[in-house]
Amino acid sequence: MASSPAAPDRPCVGVESFGTLQDGQPVDLFVLTTRDGVEVRITNYGGIVVGLRTPDRYGNFDDIVLGFDRLEDYVRDRTYMGALIGRYANRVAGARLALGGEEFSLEKNDGEHHLHGGAEGFHKVLWRAAPVLGDGVSGVRLVHHSNDGEAGYPGNLLVTVTYLLSADGELTVDYSALSDRDTVVNCTQHSYFNLDGIGGRDILDHVLVLRAHRFTPTSADLIPTGEIRNVAGTAFDFTRPRRIGSRIDEHDEQLIAAAGYDHNYVLDGPVGLLRAVARASSPASGRVVEIATTEPGLQFYTGNALRPQGSGKSGSPYTRRSGFCLEPQHFPDSPNRPHFPSSLLRKGERFRSTSAYRFSTLDESSELRPGW
How far apart (Å, rounded) are the C-alpha atoms in residues 42 and 143? Predict the structure, then answer.
């Protein structure tokens, strides 16, 4: 465990070199720090959250997101470690979508399907970046122009993503996009959390609460069937605090197909309103992350496909279920499911989405605070 780093008197942004891509383009690392020592490290390659240091219940700081020490490891990575995802997060069945009577073929990068915007989606581009400083906040603004036809998507899309860290350690991610043609947009943030710190135990003893009474079951290849199913009485019910690992290995066709949890939850509350939807905590460290979003869905993924691939930060191997993802987003395959919330972005209209991550700690006897 590490003690708190020296912290500035007010929120600030540091800029460091994070290496160079093969084509010679330099990559930056933006370091956001609060006066209490919370630190978020973000690179403009893929908009990746490279590090996120928060204190445990005893004031010891650790990095709680999986990732790598070197740029080249992120370039090779195929697990979307810490990255921004788009144009369309999650899966699109058959790698096709229909808009205005016209059908578009997307890149097939997940068998016969399309996943996370394609092999060279938002997670593999170098974003234009600039630091942001405001009243009590620090951040970085990322801008990317996605060309008409990239990975098969229609429209020239201008995307802006702003990460903001408040003085009290809340990380907000604001998404905005404009297109010159009708298209679809679905963005998310793909950090893998382990609230015990990198190189710690697996995440099966973490406790999770989701404000979601329904989820979207999938076929064997993880494409939604179109059903919206109630979680009551199933292994998918996290409406009350429960260990992630308590039912993860049950003989359930949904868990077997995904080798654990890799499912979209239908979030309670009005879509478009920023509301608290998820809360994860570690009994061991006392760390807590709460997520609020304007989105209709949340993908819960338990790192089932993680396998040792070289080494992560400080030589830590990332084994199966060593991190979990909570990804606010629209439902997978929404373009092909008219009864799912629409991900259509019309020409000239603005796409907006906001998600916020609040970090805190519990003492050993703490219960969930009122409202949870």
Answer: 14
Q: Which residue has the tokens 């998600």?
A: 355
Sheet holding 325-329, edge to edge: 229-230, 214-216, 262-266, 297-301, 325-329
Q: Which residues pair with 275 in a beta bridge?
A: 293
| Rounded Cα gap, residues 257 and 113, in angstroms | 16
Express each pLDDT in 344-360 by its tens digit: 999 999 999 999 999 99
- Give yes or no: 367 in active site: no
Q: Which domains occur in the chain, in start order? A: 12-361 (2.70.98.10)
Q: Do residues 216 and 264 make contact, with C-beta atoms less than 8 angstroms apart?
A: yes
Q: Using one digit for the tens of pLDDT, what is the confidence trace for 142-153?
A: 999 999 999 999
The whole-angstrom separation of Cα 286 and Cα 163 is: 25
144 is catalytic: no
Of 113, 116, 190, 330, catalytic: 190
Contact 265, 214 (CB under 8 A): yes
- pLDDT beyond 60 at 370: no
Backbone angles phi, psi at 129, to 5 degrees: -140, 150
- Paired with 92 in beta bridges are 114
Residue 57 CA to residue 54 CA, distance in Å, equals 10
Q: Are 222 and 257 in contact (CB under 8 A)?
A: yes
Q: What is the DSSP string of 208-248?
A: EEES-SEEE-B-TTS-B-S--EE-TTSTT--SS-EEGGGST
Burial classification of residue 191, based on how many CB atoms lie within 10 Å of its CB (0-12 exposed, 13-18 middle, 19 or more buried): buried
What is the Cα–Cα distance from 231 to 265, expressed in whole angstroms? 9
Reference 313, options 54, 122, 49; nearest CA is 49
Q: Quick count: other Cβ atoms within 10 Å of Cβ 181? A: 16
3-class state of residue 128 by DSSP: strand
Nearest to 140 by CA among 235, 220, 42: 42
Q: Say which residue the tokens 């073929």 belong to.
A: 105
pTM: 0.94
- Catalytic residue, candidates 170, 290, 327, 330: 327
